[in-house]
Amino acid sequence: MTKIPMEGKRIHLLYKNAIEPLVVEEVQRQMQRLPVKLLNSLNRDEIMSQAIAYALNRLPSMYATSERGWHFQYQKAIEQFRPQIVTAVRQALAAIQRDPLTPVWRLTHPSEERSQWSDRQQRQYKQG
Questions:
Q1: Residues 96-100: contacts with CB within 8 Å, 24+ apart?
Q2: Three-state SS across 31-90?
């Protein structure tokens, strides 16, 4: 569930990307084949986070707002995009091995953490 601020209120949006769990599974599968020395020299959680984000940014989004829709999208992702998922994850792990990406940040949604912008900057942004 995602909380989004909207004019002083928070609305709750329910949606899932059906391709995401397939990417996570593929990252885990391919990481098992990486050299132990490499895995021991890097933070596994960071490698996973970076690889998942890298791969997802190169694959189509397949969002759904219901369980039925999610199962439909999930099955479609398996049938139509499995090869692209494998390739995107392989490219992600190769990129990380060549040049480790920027350290993973703790990301928070703006509604959960006060922005560093001043109140005036936020009002100006909202006004366009």
A1: 96/47, 96/50, 96/51, 96/54, 97/34, 97/38, 100/42, 100/50
A2: HCCCCHHHHHHCCHHHHHHHHHHHHHCCCCCCEECCHHHHHHHHHHHHHHHHHHHHHHHH
Task: Show the tokens assigned to 113.
Answer: 């953490």
pTM of the entire structure?
0.70
Q: What is the pLDDT of residues 78-108, one digit of tens each?
A: 999 999 999 999 999 998 888 765 555 555 5
Phi/psi-derived region of residue 7, left when phi > 0, alpha when psi is between -120 and 50, beta in every other case: left
Token pair of 15, please? 């949606």
> What is the distance between the alpha carbons of residues 82 and 84, in angstroms, rounded to a whole number?
5
Give residue-wise pLDDT tens across range 4-20.
555 667 666 688 999 99
